Amino acid sequence: MLESEKFKSRQNRKCFAYIIAGVVFQTIIILVFALTVMRIKTPSVRLGSVTVDNLNYSASGSPFFSMTLNAEIAVKNKNFGHFKFDHSTANVSYNGNAVVGYGDIIKGRAKARKTKKMRVTIDVTSINTGASDTAKLSNELNSGNVTLTSLARLRGKVTLMKVMKKKKTAEMNCTMTVDLKGRAVHILDCE
Ligand SMILES: *[C@@H]1O[C@H](CO)[C@@H](O)[C@H](O)[C@H]1NC(C)=O
Ligand SMILES: *[C@@H]1O[C@H](CO)[C@@H](O)[C@H](O)[C@H]1NC(C)=O
Ligand SMILES: *[C@@H]1O[C@H](CO)[C@@H](O)[C@H](O)[C@H]1NC(C)=O
Ligand SMILES: *[C@@H]1O[C@H](CO)[C@@H](O)[C@H](O)[C@H]1NC(C)=O
Q1: What is the pTM of this model?
Q2: Which atom, in ligand 4's list, is nearest to the CA of 151?
């Protein structure tokens, strides 16, 4: 074999190696992209701060409580595209099953990698709601703290790069205690 031919074949092998390396590199880039930017995650929704107005309650006689909760609801969207959600309702329940109030969550949009905060007003009353375990309610009111749960389900769509759309539902499940004397709400836990 001539020296020049040997040189040529060595060059060819080198060239081939570059192509392989290029393909591997591109594949890695695409994989990383698919696993981060293109992966659509379910947005989360939780209660931020909650304040209480018009608090009224009685632990004796027929025990009851009523109040207006002013809640800040935060929709956290970790996606690289916006999450647009429909109008929905947040409900507040006492003792697991008695729904004591509803609040409107107006439709909106959480921008890419942003948290959208909204104010929701929830009128709460235990009267005529099935919060009928009067002994338990009376005890709880006497203890100074009432535990409430708030649930919401935000149905919507995440849009990536203006064309890829995927339905996602963000769910809220938060437990809070209302400190009756202090007229303050402490968020205990948001799933
Ligand atoms: C609290 O509730 C009682 C009993 O329903 C009522 O008589 C009273 O007017 C209420 N007070 C306020 C400030 O709403
Ligand atoms: C009510 O709950 C809060 C938060 O869990 C707690 O700090 C406070 O001591 C409780 N108050 C009473 C009277 O139990
Ligand atoms: C309370 O809200 C949750 C979540 O949206 C829902 O699943 C549940 O049915 C609601 N309960 C009532 C009684 O509306
Ligand atoms: C809300 O979370 C509690 C635990 O913190 C769980 O026991 C309950 O089943 C959840 N409710 C819903 C409707 O997901």
Answers
A1: 0.83
A2: 13
Q: Which helix (H) or strand (E) holds 7?
A: helix 3-35
Beta strands in 13-113 (DSSP E): 44-58, 64-77, 83-85, 88-94, 98-105, 108-110
Q: What CA dihedral angle connects 89, 96, 189 and 75, to 10 degrees? A: -10
Tens of pLDDT along 27-80? 988 888 778 777 899 999 999 999 999 999 999 888 999 999 999 999 999 999
Task: Give the ligand at the shortest distance from the Cα of 153.
Answer: 3
Atom of ligand 2 at shortest range from CA of 186: 4
- 91 in contact with ligand 3, CB cutoff 6 A: yes
Predicted confidence at residue 1, as pLDDT, reads 60
Ligand index nearest the alpha carbon of residue 186: 2
Sign of the alpha-carbon torsion through 109, 114, 120, 126? positive
CA distances from 154 to 58, 110, 120 (A): 34, 12, 14
The label of the residue with tokens 């992966």 reads 39
Rounded to whole angstroms, the Cα distance separating 39 from 51 reads 36
